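Subgroup meeting minutes
Present: P.N., E.W., G.H.
Scribe: E.W.

1. P.N. recapped why we're keeping a running log of single-chain structure predictions: easier to compare across weeks, and new members can see raw inputs and outputs side by side.
2. G.H. added today's entry (114 aa).
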Amino acid sequence: VQLQASGGGLVQPGGSLRLSCAASGFTLDYYDIGWFRQVPGKEREGVSCISSSGIANYQDSVKGRFTISRDNTKRTMDLQMNSLKTEDTAVYYCKARYMGMEFWGKGTQVTVSS
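Output recorded in log:
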């Protein structure tokens, strides 16, 4: 049972990246899922989440720039990140949660720099 995140990398300010997280060993149908990020010396923070019913929420700083999506058939969740800023630089983690069960993926580094 695991989540595998991918898609990070180096991008210039104003650029785009798409993060993907694939679940193996379980289905996502009943899980609330989300993306978090962390920079050294700071606590991990929530970026965006989408409930099992498809309701999405975003941190204020990413509203209008990031879009979260899920595909239960493929057991994947994506985070489309547009208009990236230097302050979006962080390690990004995906998480799935259902009735007290919680799974985290290993992080993927996103670096926004010119």
